[in-house]
Structures are given as structure tokens and as C-alpha cells.
Known about the structure:
The chain is mainly α. It has one domain. Helix content is 36%, strand content 8%. The protein has 8 helices and 6 strands; from the N terminus they run αααβββαββααβαα. α4 packs across α6. The N and C termini lie close together (10 Å).
Amino acid sequence: KMTQLLLLLVSVASAWGAHPRAPQDRTDLLNVCMDAKHHKAKPGPEDKLHDQCSPWKKNACCFVNTSQELHKDTSLLYKFNWNHCGKLEPSCKRHFIQDTCLYECSPNLGPWIHQVDQSWRKERFLNVPLCKEDCQSWWEDCRTSYTCKTNWQKGWNWTSGINECPVRAACHTFEFYFPTPAALCEGLWNHSYKVSNYSRGSGRCIQMWFDLAHGNPNEKVARFYAEAMSMAEPHENGPFLLCLVLMLLWFLS
Length: 253
Ligand SMILES: *[C@@H]1O[C@H](CO)[C@@H](O)[C@H](O)[C@H]1NC(C)=O
Ligand SMILES: *[C@@H]1O[C@H](CO)[C@@H](O)[C@H](O)[C@H]1NC(C)=O
Ligand SMILES: *[C@@H]1O[C@H](CO)[C@@H](O)[C@H](O)[C@H]1NC(C)=O
Ligand SMILES: *[C@@H]1O[C@H](CO)[C@@H](O)[C@H](O)[C@H]1NC(C)=O
């Protein structure tokens, strides 16, 4: 009996080692914070979230200080200057603030977290399905403001400590650099967003803007995509569990 027990333990241990928890386990994708520069380790309530970030106060990945800082021009968070070609129109700027609130505060973007090899963060969002109206209004409100680049994630002149347009990048309207809403929302942060074909309220796309009085609509969206993704994953643990049960029966007999 003792040898049988040992054998059982050894095989369980090795099977366990060979089958680490699937990274795409559904619960791993829900209610999580990304491992990046300013994110909390875990989401939780933050009663005092500032201004445009307040929709996330019931459950957030950002600290209050982060929510305050990100409303400032050239915030200390990334020393990133939105006004690199003159001041953005206020109606345009509010979309960048909202985009940053979503990035820093949302605990509902787990299904789109990917590992990256960057000095300032270990993870990023990729292809978050942004509701088409949120992208459309961002583009419409910014088309008359100015910028000098289509991918804001790379290629700046950082010698002064703040991003400046590189010498050969001239300032033109957003409309010049981003001819369509998708060019803006998908190009800006190197495909962090993918413009969804779905509309706000559909439960199938992430809303950058929402009214907390009706709850956070993105919780349901994350659940939907997490479930879809875990169904696409093969259930590798099935054979392993069957084996475990058989061995237990054998041991108990
Ligand atoms: C914000 O506060 C948290 C703890 O409350 C701290 O760890 C973090 O460094 C602060 N961040 C900024 C940008 O000041
Ligand atoms: C970068 O900006 C500095 C001024 O801040 C300027 O002297 C330098 O020529 C710029 N370099 C490039 C490659 O744009
Ligand atoms: C853009 O994202 C892709 C992954 O989709 C990555 O391979 C590439 O290095 C990124 N490029 C920049 C400029 O950050
Ligand atoms: C997106 O929506 C348009 C118009 O509602 C429709 O014609 C098209 O088939 C949709 N595409 C997808 C991929 O669902």
C-alpha cells in the first residue's frame, strides 16, 4: 500500500508540474489589473477618484493620486505632452483623459492583456474592442487639433525629458495624420484598441465613457469575451483529471 501511495503522489506531482494552470483560465481574465507602471496589484474601491475617472470608483486599478495626475497636461505619470503641436481643443483633450482613465483604472480589460518586453511595463492591452461611437466621437472632436505622428508610442524626441516632435515630423491636423476614426483609435497606441463593429450598450464592446449610475457596462463585456476565449482553449486538464480519478480508485481498492 505504501508503495502505491508513493507512486500516486509522485505521478500527481509530476502531472501537476506538466500542466501548470492554463494562463487563459476564465477567472484569471476577470476583475484584474495589468502589471504596468502605475496600476494597483488588485482592483478595489477608490471613493475619491478624480473627475473623469470617477465612473471607476466602485472598483478600480488606479490610485486616487494617479486619477488626479492624469488630468494634467504633461502629467508626471509618463511626462507625455498631448500639446506637442499646440494646445489640443478642450473637447478633444477630454477624450485623451478618458482614454487614460480607462487604461489606468479599468479592471475589465483582462481578456486583452498581453506580456511585453518593455522597460516600463510587463504587460499591455492589445485589440480591446472599443465601441464604435466612442471612437467616432473621439475622432470627430479631435480632427481640428494638431499632432505630428500617427503612432504615439514610439519615435519621439525625448532629449528634453518630455516628448517633442522629431525634426522631420511636421505638425498637421489630426485629420491629416488620422484620415479615419480607426486610424486614430487603433494607430495611436499601437493597436491597444480595435474599433468594434458593436455599439455602446450592446454588451459586446468596451465603453470608454459610461455613467456609473447604471453600473459599469464593461464587466459584462469582459465576461462575454473571457468565456468565448476559454471555450476556444482546449481543455487540457480533462485527461489529467480522469487519470487522477482512476488512480484514486485503484489506490482505494
Ligand atoms: C500614488 O499612491 C500610491 C500609494 O498610495 C503610491 O504607491 C504611488 O507611488 C503614488 N503614485 C504617484 C504617481 O504619486
Ligand atoms: C531633439 O530635440 C532637441 C531639443 O530639445 C534638439 O536639439 C535635437 O536636434 C532634436 N533631435 C532630433 C533627432 O529631433
Ligand atoms: C506594436 O505592437 C506589436 C505587437 O502587436 C509589437 O510587436 C511592436 O513591437 C509594437 N511596436 C511599437 C512601435 O511599439
Ligand atoms: C458590421 O456592421 C455592418 C453594418 O451594421 C454590417 O454590414 C457588417 O456585416 C458587420 N460586420 C461584422 C463583421 O459583423
